[in-house]
Amino acid sequence: MISEESKKNFTTLQRAFSRGDVSIVHCEDSKGRSNQMLCALCHDEPTGTYKYVPFAIMITPSFYPFVNKLLPTSKLKGEWGWVTKNDSTDTKSET
Question: Which one, of 56, 43, 45, lies nearest residue 10 by Cα?
């Protein structure tokens, strides 16, 4: 079950995307590995600048092979948006 807090956070993200207040930012972790973060942009009125608030990591390589090993809840109305060619361990997916 999805919590009320998660639903509210998702609604906030939808608003940010609809206003264009989301950015993708390249950064490196403490080990020097390259990552791309999705950040919400927050206007800091006292300084007139923007603050970047990270909320998601763009996963590279593709996460589809991992997700294909998971089964959605039986209450999901619909199905995954991709299928594998062979089985759940196949690393090539069709979208």
Answer: 56
Q: Over the chain (95 residues), what is each successive 10-residue block's mean pLDDT?
A: 89 90 91 90 88 84 68 71 51 40
Global confidence as pTM: 0.56
| Domain ranges for the chain | 20-60, 62-95
DSSP-assigned states of every residue in 7-64? HHHHHHHHHHHHHT-EEEEEEE-TT--EEEEEEEEEEETTTTEEEEEEEEEE-SS-SH
Q: Determine the Cα–Cα distance for residues 30 and 64; give it in Å rounded to an integer.
A: 26
Contact 21, 40 (CB under 8 A): yes
* Token pair recorded at residue 59: 């996963």
Distance CA 48, CA 27 (A): 23
Residue 8 tokens read as 């509210």
